[in-house]
Amino acid sequence: MTDDASPDTREETEGGTDGLTAALPGLDLGDEEAAGRYQVLARKYRPSGFSDLVGQEAMVRTLTNAFASGRLAHAFVLTGVRGVGKTTTARIIARALNCVGPDGTGGPTIEPCGVCENCRAIAEDRHVDVLEMDAASRTGVDDIRELIEGVRYRPVSARYKVYIIDEVHMLSRNAFNALLKTLEEPPEHVKFIFATTEIRKVPITVLSRCQRFDLRRIGAENLSADFARIAATEGAAISDRAIRLIARAADGSHRDGLSILDQVITTGAACDGEISEDQVRDMLGLADRTRGFDLLEAVFAGDAVRALDILEDDYRNGADPMQVLQDLLEITHWLTRIKLVPAAAEAAGVPEAESERGSDLAGRLGMGALARAWQMLLKGVKEAQGAPSVVQAVEMILIRLAYVSELPTPEEALKTLDGGGSPRGSSAPPAPAASAPRPGGAPVGAVAAEPVAAPPPEAVSDARPHPTSLAEVIALAETRGEPVLKVQLINNVRLVHFEPGRIEFSLEDGAPQEIVGNLARFLRAETGERWMVSLSNQSGEQTAAQKADAETAEEKAVIAETPLVKSILETFPGATIETVRRLGPETAEQPDDDGPAGGNEGEPPE
Ligand SMILES: [Zn+2]
After folding, report:
1. What pLDDT sits at residue 190?
2. Which of 119, 270, 463, 502 has the fewest CB atoms within 10 Å distance of its CB?
3. Ligand 1 centroid, distance to 130 Cα (angstroms)
């Protein structure tokens, strides 16, 4: 029961864990009031009736209907992100339930009078029958037992005993079970109001006994309008754009927004004239959005030096590097949206200069580049959070972004590879098809520098093939439509000796002996020559399949060392080479007999 705790203490607890309040040093919700006449806006403008709730029309409508029909549940659950007004709503409901009207004869009403003793006592958090508990700090079954103990006693002065349990999802399982017993058979004079940010953590057994109300995240428009009204009431001159910035920074939370507004007004009181957007930005430690654009533009242009200059500048001016990263993330998201829906550039609250710049940038950047930047920034945020020096981490992320901007996107890279070309001179991964396969020969990567272009048409001669290796024989089997033979050769044949006209090999255990005869017939038919095909009692080399496996592993290692792939792997920590795609369809289509090209490395995997 928190009726012994002062409301200010609670306010502080609610805001204390939040980054926003933490980012506003000097803003202490409790002290100011204690210090003097100034009353914190969040308390001063705490809504006292449903009509004061900003942006919660849907919930208010449902609640109004419930009161009008007299069908009030024994328990309510209010859910929504922090700061949208759950506990405030809970207190208004408590009032609505207990209001007796100015003349003391009224019943439950959606419009509590605010003047009767019940209304006033609840507003001042001193009503003996309205009990609040913060489940975040009191999660145990004993806490709940203690609370529920009083359920069987009638209210002292109110119509209903109201139990408000904040952050109800934090209760332990035993605590929920204890609560459930009461919820199953609640006395007539008791109402429960639960508030939670995480409704999914509340057991369904509890939820099923509650009337649920969802509080919406409050839109920036609604917040702006409300803050403008409050600023006017307070006699503070704040520019529209500054108000919009506050609303945006509040991120859906009325309370957070009021806290910022508080500070803005206090700070602004010292200076003359209207409080500008820039002043608020400074106050909040928000990096200038235009700086965000500058930074992003530098990064996308691959200009790491300029990007670092901008960052250093901002940093020296007091910008939080983490916030810089968040801004980049936000802008990237926005640019991506503009790419999909160009109208997004003119979204509410976006200054004209910004929307123009956004459209321009979005037009110049590809979806792939934006998606990649988003991914890298997201990963960067996590990295920076765990880094000993945030600014250093952010620098590294910018360098990485700038560096990678010169690389083709994955799609572009694939296209380039498929086209057989190389985006950066010899930096393309080696195309294995170009290698000269000799049994036990050099790894494919060693000959990567050779051009991979398909042989010119005239290279294909009419002459019959003269395979000079088992690999070429396998390729021949493939192109001449002998898939069974091909597979048998790949999987079962362990080569002992190969020379044109003579092949000696052993077979894998259990392989069909007929391979010998089939191969001899095939070679005779294809080359027009007699081939000596025989089994050897030596064990021979690995099969082509085994070699390919080993080579794939080796290739991955080699590919990983090529500049392009190496930079990709460094840029995306945790990335791995999953498959090595064999390129070079020419091997399959044109088994040339006058060159070493083609072979088992050229076998496209099935
Ligand atoms: Zn009243």
Report:
1. 94
2. 270
3. 14
